[in-house]
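anyone else get weird line breaks when pasting these?? whatever heres mine. first is seq + tokens for prot A
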Amino acid sequence: MIRDVSMLAHMNKTDPAKALDKVCKEFETLFANQLLKTMKESMPEGFLEESMADDIYKDMFYQEIAKNIGQSGALGIASMLKRHIQQNFGEDGKSAPGEVHKLKDTNR
């Protein structure tokens, strides 16, 4: 999990491909976490006990599930995002300085 933006910036300078992979996995983790939160909210009241301690425990539990989903790539979002970025901005996900990329139309 990305804890510090400066760590990511350093990684982007030393190993841009690894930084891109990490960011894509982190995005999948955040998406999975939001998905789990929304699913939790859709459960009827009284289905699970409701107290502040229970809410904190459930949030921690859902964060861990989301982290495992993101790291394993179970939803496939990280690989799709990484592939899209690489197709449009190169293998390391970066544009050359001063270069403007026009996104490729992948619907053709």
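and prot B, same format (seq, then tokens)
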Amino acid sequence: MKHAAKMTFSFIVLLVLINGCAMSPMSIHWLSKEELRSVPKKPFIRAVEFYPTDVNLLDEAHRRGLITAENLIYAKRGCLNVGMSYTALGGAWGIPYNMNVSVGSYGVKIQWCFRDFNSLTSSYSRKYAYTRNGKVTSWQF
């Protein structure tokens, strides 16, 4: 009886792991343009952030209305533009290592902190993006 319970538990854990991996950023990254259309919004946005400047993911984000045509061009180049959405910011620069949030009468301001690895010098540099109420307002290197 104990063995059967252990086997059932192991099978359930295996199913959960497989199902979780099916919507991982890596598995989404390898989907075709047609298959990307069926990915739910939340895991899709995570994949866009996980694979910045990925052309297929950014094109699908534009098709879904998450990135404007103008900001799509910037994101594909890894550049920012004033007025970009969070999704476009993630599509251009990836996932921040830190976010500093402040809330006041002006709304929500966020400082997004990113690291860039320079393979020539084997060192990291930092860059920052600033948003107010969901839109990029400025950035610095």
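btw re prot B: Confidence is low (pLDDT under 50) at residues 14-19. The radius of gyration is 19 Å.
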